[in-house]
Amino acid sequence: MHEIEKKMRALEKELEYHSKRYYEDDAPEISDREYDMMFASLKALEEEYPSLASPTSPTKRVGGAVAERFEKVRHPVSMGSLQDVFSIEELSAYLEKTDGNALYTVECKIDGLSVLLTYEDGVLTLGATRGDGSYGEDVTLNVRTIKDVPLKLNRPIKRLLVRGEVYMPKAVFAELNAKREEKGETPFANPRNASAGSLRQLDSALCAARKLSIFVFNLEECSEALPDSHKERLEFLEELGFKVSPIKELCRGASQVIEAVERISELRPTLPYDIDGAAIKIDSVALRQEIGELSNLPKWAVAYKYPPEEAETTLTDIVIQVGRTGVLTPNAVLESVKVAGSTVSRATLHNIDYINGKDIRIGDRVIIRKAGDIIPEVVRSLPEKRRENSVPYTMPEFCPSCGSPVGRDEGGVAVRCTNTDCFAQLHRTIMHFASSMGIDNLGESIIKTLIDKGFIKSAADLYTLDTEKLAALERFGDKSAKRLTDSIEKSKSAPLANLISALGIRQIGEKGAIALAERFGSIKALSEAEEETLVGINDIGLVTAKCIREYFSVPQNVTLVERLSALGLRVEEEAVEKGTALEGKTLVVTGTLPRLKRNEAEALIRKHGGNAASSVSKKTDFVLCGTDAGSKLTKAQSLGIPVIDEAEFLRMIGKEK
C-alpha cells in the first residue's frame, strides 16, 4: 500500500474512534482542536490525492458537494406507507381482522422523512427518499452527512437494503429556529418540515449543519439468511452499526398492544425526538407474507395516530414580523396557557389567507395547538364567544420596519416589503450581495458586527468602510481589515451580471442576471425597460418581469443603484455577440487553470453558447480541468465524461492563439 494511502487510512481510523468517544460515549479523549487538526490533515490529503480518498471517510460527514439537482432513482423494493387508525376502537377492529393472538412489535412512529439505504459489500452506495413509493430522489451526498448513518457496516455484507426515518431532534430544532428568529427569518413549522427541507438541500454542507439523525425501522433486503422475527432483525441491524427504533415492545394479543400504545403516548412529551403515533407490526415475517399487502398498504401493520393536544385562550393582539426575505408574517399574542407540557404566549398565524379563511380576529377566544408538538399555531377561533365590536384583521399597507409599501406575491400568499434596503432584511441582503460580488473574508458574524456597530446600513456602505476603523474592531486586526477592504475594492470590477444578481431582485438568479446583462448592457437601460420587453428575453417570464419593474419602482432601490454607480462599481458593459462553438453543451470547470480564472472560463463558456454548470452529472458534456482538481474530476471519470484542459478548451472556441 502507498505510504500516503496508509496515512489516510490511519487518520480515518483515528477520527472514527474519537468521533465515537465524543458523540456516542460522551467521553472525549482529545481536545476539539486536536480533532480539528487531524480532520484538516485528512481533508488536505484527500484534496491532493483524490484517487486515494475513501467513500467512507469521516470528511464525507461535513458535506460540501453541491448537487445541480437530484437524480430520480427507481426503488428495488416497494416503499409503501402504513394504514392509519385514530382511535382505540379502530385499532381493536384492525387487530381482530389480522390475528388477535399473534406476536406484534409496537414501536414509536417517528415523524420525519422516510429513506431507503443501500449497502454493497458493507459500504453505503445509495440513499434515496421515499418519493411516491416506486421512485425517489438520490440524496446520497446528504445522507452521508448524518452521523447515525454508518458509511461502512461492522462487517461486509454483499447486499443490504434498509429503511429508516430521518428526523431532527427537538433540541436541534429549537436551536435552529432560535437562530432563524434571531436573524429575522421565518421559523420552521415543525421538526418534520425542517428535516425534509434539510435532507433536500442541494448543498450537502448546509444539510450537515442541520445535524439530522435517523432511526432504521425495517430490513428490506439482505444477501444473508435472516431470522423470521422482525424484532430479531432489528437487533441484527443494531449489530451492524445502525440506530434502530429505540422503543420496540413485543406484545401478545390486542390487550398488550393497546397497553403498549398507551405507554408510548405517556412517554411522548419526554422523548428527545418527535413522534406522531405508534407503529404496530406482525412480528413474524412468514405470517406477514401469508397476510399479504393491499396495493401500497401492508395488511400486516398499522399506524395508530395520536391526537394533538389543544388549549383555549384569548388572542390579545396580532404583531408583524419582517423576515430576511421581506415577508411579513403575522403572529398571535396570547394570554399565557399551558399546552403539550409548556406555557405558550405566542403562536403563528402563517399568512393573511390563513387568518381570513378561519376568520381570526383580535380579542377572539381561540383554540391553539402545537404543530408537530413544537411550534404553537392558532387552529380556529370561537365566534360564539366573540366580542360585539370585533372587526376582521387586515395586513398593514406599509412595512413596520422601514415604512416602505408592501406588496403581495403574484399567485402566492406572501405579503412582502418592497424595499430590499429594509433594515429587517439587511443581514440577508448584505450576505447575498457579498456572495454575488465575490467579496471574500466577509462572513456572517462579521456582517452582524458591522450592522450592530452602525458601519453599514445598506450594501453601498460596504464601499465606504475604513481599514483603520475595521482594524480596531474585536476579532479584527490590520491584516484582516486590509484583506477585507482590498476584496471589496476588487469587487468593483465584477461583471455587470454579478451586480444585477447582487441587487437581490426577486426571481433573478445567476442565469437571469447574465441574460439581462447581455440584453441591456447597463443598469440604467434595465431600470427603464418595459415589462413587454423583459418578457421577450430568455429565462425571463411574466412574474420575473413584474418583479424587475417592481424593484426599480421603489425609490430606495433606485437610490442604492445610484450610490453604487457613484462609488465606482461596474454598471455598464459592452454588448457581446454570442458565439455558437459550444451551443447546447454543458461544461463544468474544476481545479486551477494555467491562465484563466474560473469566472473567466465560465464567462467564455457562456459567450460561446454553452452552459457553465456548477456540478458534474450525467448531462455534463465536458469537464474543463486544471491542477488540484478534486471530487468533480473523480465523478467525471467514473461517469466516463470527457475531461479537457485549458489548451483544448481554447481550441474548441477558436482562441488557441
Short description, anyone?
The chain has 657 residues and is α+β, with helices and mostly antiparallel strands. It contains 24 helices and 24 strands.
Describe this structure in words.
With 657 residues, the protein is an alpha+beta fold. It folds into six domains: 3-62, Helix Hairpins (Orthogonal Bundle), CATH 1.10.287; 83-305, DNA ligase/mRNA capping enzyme (D-amino Acid Aminotransferase, Chain A, domain 1); 310-385, Nucleic acid-binding proteins (OB fold (Dihydrolipoamide Acetyltransferase, E2P)); 423-493, 5' to 3' exonuclease, C-terminal subdomain (DNA polymerase, domain 1, Orthogonal Bundle), CATH 1.10.150.20; 496-566, 5' to 3' exonuclease, C-terminal subdomain (DNA polymerase, domain 1), CATH 1.10.150.20; 586-652, Rossmann fold (3-Layer(aba) Sandwich), CATH 3.40.50.10190. It has 24 helices and 24 strands. The strands form seven sheets. A five-stranded mixed β-sheet has the order 2-13-10-3-9. Strands 16-15-14-17-18 form a five-stranded antiparallel β-sheet, with no helix packed on it. Strands 5-4-7-8 form a four-stranded antiparallel β-sheet.
Structural class: alpha+beta
Q: Supply Rg.
A: 28 Å
Instruction: Please give the number of β-strands.
Output: 24
The portion of residues forming beta strands comes to 15-25%
Cross-sheet strand order for the largest sheet: 2-13-10-3-9
CATH superfamily of the largest domain: DNA ligase/mRNA capping enzyme
The separation of the N and C termini measures: 44 Å
